[in-house]
Probable purine permease (Salix brachista), 362 residues
Amino acid sequence: MSNNSVRVQEDQKARTNKRYTFLLVINYLFLFVGSLSSSLLSKFYFNHQGSSRWVSTWVQSAGFPLLLFPIYLPFYVFKCTDRRPFSHFTPRILILSILVGLMLGLNNLLFSWGNSYLPVSTSSLLLSTQLVFNLILSVIIVKQKITFQNLNCVVLLTLSSVLLALGSSHDKPQGLTRAKYFVGFFSTIGAGLLFALYLPVMEKIYKWIYCYEMVMEMQLVMEIAATALATAGMASDGGFSEMKRESLVKFDKGPEIYWVTVFSNVVTWQLCFMGTAGMVFLTSSLTGGICMTALLAMNVLGGVLVYGDEFGGVKVVSTVICGWGFCSYVYGMYLKMGEEKEMESKNHGMEMDHNVVLANNV
């Protein structure tokens, strides 16, 4: 790589750092709005006789054209970067983006299966297990250190999921068989596992990435790959003509509300994935998983308030344990940050003392 390329990379990294807080806040807002809205809209689709899980899968990635704005506006409109879009986007990064995108497409399908059968509150609580998987896979893939707080969080969230599985099988939509309930249950667990794998894999890939715009470029390729997978599945299930028929015949709120629901879901899902990618790039895969877990509590509350999901007995206990595990992890992170800050101050003080000694010797 030429010296000029290295200089551009360093400049881009510096600019990313200067706007770090702004990007962090914006991406968490995207994640918050996208996660809550997409979960409720997906359930609204299925509650009103929407039945295509491929449609529900397709909307999760079909909003990829929205990514063109954060990719092209910084260079061509805002003039806040010297890097042209897709420069230094190597074939290796392209191939990895496509492979991860296909994995993301499978994750979207599993989520759609789970969300079509389970109440929002139940699916949200089950998805909280992704933090457990995330911790384990982060240890393997990015060498995340295991602490007491980590293990405590794993045990508590696993217990929360087991309680939910044993006590919530009665909490299912009318007409849903026990077999389909458990299909939804294990599909949601599978979605959590795949998403937990996605986070540390992306953290490892992002070590080669030096600017936020490049993160969005990777996200664009991944979403295109996921959309191609979902489109192929839709084609085998009747294609877009089936969507039109569903809007006119099956959906009980009428075609206008159907298309509003579909396109609103496209936008909110894209916000969710943009926020997730940004959080992993700006922080870490584990922090991204923590943020997702924190937002799941809002999804549970949203399901109870909007759709009247049951929220008593075992589900209350499961939620309390889930919250306990999450809080213990946050507290562990707080202690770790305090230790790192103290160590940094101590090293800085030793460095100053060393410089004073050298000056005196001179």
